[in-house]
Task: structure prediction
Amino acid sequence: MDGMDLDFQLVLLRRMADHNPDLVDDARRRLGASLAEMREANKRWQAMVRSPRTRSAAARYRSVLGEPESVVPRRLGDVDCEARRWALPLWPELRFEVLAGPGGAVWNEWLVRAPGAPAPRLETLDDLAPWSCTVDEAARAFAPARPLEGTAPTRWGLAFTTPDGKGVRHEVVAEFTWGLLQRTAVVGAG
Result:
């Protein structure tokens, strides 16, 4: 794994640490990185994003992650775009996807299930463990899910109804960072 791949994975983990510090610490150790290295990687990323000489977000991902593993044309309404995907060693069953529009504008950036990777079983609230699924998987499994505004640019939320392991239905809010489930809360639960 080259330094840029490592740095980028540490950037993803840094934002996830707010919700799941234990999972992040385990993942960071698997990458062989210290907490200080994670902070420094995030600092470099933020400086690159905020640089006045910054290139387009799509070009930034290519410079950090290299050529995408795949580029899939997509059509959203009447606009053509591309889904560019990169493999990340920390999550072999997922891909980091950048949805890029005309001129390199990035419309979305998140983790998605890798083609051919088995999808998680999502039937009840009990199946929604941290890091078990992506936004699109949860939205499909618990349709109709309602998107919620996230608390930061890399965060999303979904509201939906699902049964628990005993069949009792609950209103649930699920929070995602970089497209990966971080936590759920039953609405109105004490």
User: Anything to note?
Assistant: The mean pLDDT is 90.
